[in-house]
Design brief:
By secondary structure, this protein is α/β, with parallel strands linked by helices. Helices cover about 35% and strands about 30% of the residues. The chain contains five helices and seven strands, in the order αβββαββαββαα. Strands 1, 2, 3, 4, 5, 6 and 7 form a seven-stranded mixed beta sheet that branches. Helix 2 crosses helix 5. The mean pLDDT is about 85.
Length: about 180
C-alpha cells in the first residue's frame, strides 16, 4: 500500500467515526377550543407515562426526564412563573396546569454500534404531549415531539441517553413557554 492510499484510508475512516445525524420533531402545541387565562395558574404538574404495548421506560429515566423538564421550565422559559412545579398530581391544588407526556418510543440505543458506523445504535424518544387545566380536566393544547440521535464515531460512543433526554426537555419547555406567551 502506498503512502497516498494509507492517508486516504485513514481520512475516510476518520470521517466515518466523526459524523452522523441528529434529528428533532419540533413540538408544535395546537390549541384546543378551551382558552384559559394563563395568569391564573400558580402550579404546574409534570406527568410522564408510556403507551401500552411494549414501550419500556424505567422509573429512573422517567424521573430524570421530569427533572430535566422542570429545570428547563424553571430556569428557562418560565423563570419565576410558577410557585410550584410538582411531579405527582395533587388534588388540593387549584389553579394548576398539567403537562402530560405519553412516551410512544424510547430507545437508549447502543454506544458501541454508534461508534462503529453512522446511524447504527441510534437513540430515540418520541411522545405525545397534552397540556391540561386540572380543575376542569380540559385540554389546553396538544402536540407531538421526537428526537433521534445517530451520530457516529467517538461522539456517538461518548453520548448517552441523558443528552437526548435533555434535548427532549428543552423542546418541551420551549413550546410550553411559547404556548403561554413567554
Amino acid at each position: 500500500m502506498n503512502k497516498y492510499t494509507e492517508v486516504l484510508s485513514i481520512f475516510t475512516i476518520s470521517l466515518l467515526f466523526m459524523f452522523g445525524c441528529s434529528t428533532i420533531t419540533p413540538l408544535v402545541l395546537k390549541p384546543t377550543d378551551f382558552k384559559p387565562d394563563f395568569a391564573k395558574y400558580k402550579t404546574l404538574e409534570i406527568n410522564i407515562s408510556v403507551v401500552d404495548g411494549g414501550v419500556v421506560v424505567s422509573e429512573v429515566a422517567q424521573n430524570r426526564i421530569k427533572e430535566f423538564i422542570k429545570t428547563e421550565i424553571s430556569n428557562g422559559c418560565c423563570k419565576n412563573r410558577f410557585e410550584n412545579i410538582l411531579f405527582e398530581p395533587k388534588t388540593d391544588q387549584l389553579q394548576s396546569m398539567q403537562i402530560n407526556i405519553k412516551i410512544r418510543k424510547y430507545d437508549e440505543g447502543n454506544r458501541f454500534l454508534r461508534s462503529v458506523l453512522i446511524g447504527l445504535g441510534a437513540m430515540e424518544i418520541y411522545a405525545d404531549v397534552d397540556i391540561k387545566d386540572t380543575t376542569s380536566g380540559k385540554s389546553i393544547s396538544t402536540g407531538e415531539v421526537g428526537k433521534t440521535y445517530a451520530i457516529g464515531g467517538l461522539a456517538g460512543a461518548a453520548t448517552g441517553i441523558e443528552y437526548l433526554e435533555k434535548e427532549f426537555a428543552k423542546e418541551v419547555s420551549k413550546a410550553f413557554g411559547k404556548m403561554i406567551g413567554i
